[in-house]
Amino acid sequence: MALCSYGGCVKRHERVNAFNLVINYDVGGRLVERLSTHGSIDSGSKWHESTLTGDSTTAVTEYGRRTPRVAYRLICDAGYYGRRCSLSCNARHDKFGHYVCADNGTRICLDGWTGSFCDARTYI
Question: Residue 85's closest CA among 9, 8, 2, 6?
Fold first, then answer.
């Protein structure tokens, strides 16, 4: 899975139900500010927004003082589905099963196959 912001994604391989996001502002290698947010989100295309908190809740920019905000979302890796990316489904057509995966991760048996893993031949 990946936790994504507008600037890019951070790949995660373990399944999570909560996250901490920390952003360090460095100037010349010196930490100026550390801002953070935390929460729990479901996977999907919806962006979530948060106001960052830190030593100060505002940042000085060329436009004056601004409250830093971030947008983020959780995207499942290929083959993983569900709210927490905990459901695994990878299409196969071999001795272990004959199926494709629906958008929600459920198995859809190929024609001529049935069963939980689509591993039982059906005869007409």
Answer: 2
- In CATH, 89-121 is 1.10.3720.10: no
CA distance linking residue 42 with residue 23, whole number of Å? 22
CATH 2.10.25.140 positions along the chain are: 89-121
Q: What is the mean pLDDT of residues 44-61?
A: 67
Own/partner contacts of 19-26, CB < 8 Å, gap of 24 or more, are 19/74, 21/50, 21/70, 21/72, 23/52, 23/68, 23/70, 25/59
pTM for the predicted model, two decimal places: 0.58
pLDDT digit string, tens, across residues 29-48: 777 777 777 777 788 888 88
